[in-house]
Amino acid sequence: MSVRRRKLAVVFLLWISTCGWCGEGRPTAAGLDGEYFRYKHFHKTPPTLEDRETSLRMAADVECDACEVLLEALLPNAISWSVDSIMDVLDGDSDEEGDDVMRKGCNKHFKERLIRYGFLIERCQLVSAEVGPATSPVFCLKYTNHRPSERSLDTYSVMHDAFYYSCDHTIGRYSAEVASFVAERMRAGHPLNETVLDACRDAASCGGRRPEVRTKKRRRRKHGGEL
Description:
Helix content: 40-55%
Structural class: mainly alpha
Distance between the termini: 65 Å
Low-confidence stretches: 10-32, 94-99, 213-227
Strand content: under 5%
Strand order of the largest sheet: 1-2
Number of helices: 9
């Protein structure tokens, strides 16, 4: 083989190894945008700006309900009602060897606690004509018996990314506020379901409400007490 052909072969192999949109209509994830850190598989074309805007609109409509589902699933796993223990479950910390470093926090929760358990985002059914269009959500969270395959969990879709944003814009962005709020309420003896409801609306800023007090994320030690 000539030197020129060898160089061409090397270039071709490098292109194949880094190409994010190669294959039989089922490209693997390779790129710098956020979606490429959340999914392994994509459809024939990469996500467009319109796709991302649709995901954000869907997330804005369902983020309060999604926040409640996530907290109800995550909080019982806290080893205590200390801020650090609550932060651990919100952050998705794990001591398991080989745990994917990118599969933490909302990158993990939106798949494991929402999509895997059969939640979907669908257009809402019109309930009452008295509800004005300015306050009526277009999209609603719906629980189904559907259980997706592992490949489906790792495949990008507009709805899947809406689930991610619904987590990221609430307990992801305001995890410190949520942890402090829940710790205080649970120590005071409030029921978990009421605490979850109030935490999403008052601490996690779901529906666009800003928390009354923003606190800096505390330095934490693994499985330790509050600092």
